[in-house]
Amino acid sequence: MIQDANNEQMQIGKIGSQEAPIASGGAALDSGILDADAPTVVRVIATQDIYFDIGVAAVATINHTILPAGVIEYWEVPAGAVFSVLQVSAAGSVRLTVLA
Predict the structure, then answer these.
(1) Which band of pLDDT confidence, cut at 50, 70 and 90, is reported for residue 17?
(2) CB crowding 73-93: b at 16 or more within 10 Å, else e
(3) Which residue has the higher pLDDT, 99 or 46?
(4) Degrees, nearest 5: CA angle 57-61-64
(5) Are the C-beta atoms of residues 85 and 95 closer than 8 Å to each other?
(6) Could you tell me how many helices (H) and strands (E) the chain has, helices first?
(7) Which of 16, 18, 85, 91 is most buried, with most CB under 10 Å away?
(8) Gap between the Cα atoms of 60 and 53, Å rounded
(9) d(CA 61, CA 64)
(10) Could you give the CA distance from residue 3 to residue 30 in angstroms, rounded to a whole number?
(11) What is the dotted CATH code of the domain comprising 13-99?
(12) Cα 76–Cα 17–Cα 66 angle in degrees, nearest 5
């Protein structure tokens, strides 16, 4: 593991594949299955606020977690699962970067 200036271990990942942007709109859309056989860690950023859900049959709704525009987060997507998004108020795009 890599260490920071205080000699504390830092977990980092390297970039794997860049998924095609998901357009956030008035209906939930998803990434498609990222990996059928193993969990995947993704870096997520959206141009507009979105609701999102992660799961095998995930469909984001207004009852799910909000990711504010411009905030970068990292999430684990289980094997066989999708990353589903829904716009909060304005359409935008969502970028998923798979970390290897």
Answers:
(1) low
(2) eeeebeeebbbbbbbbeeebb
(3) 46
(4) 90
(5) no
(6) 0, 11
(7) 85
(8) 5
(9) 6
(10) 36
(11) 2.60.120
(12) 40
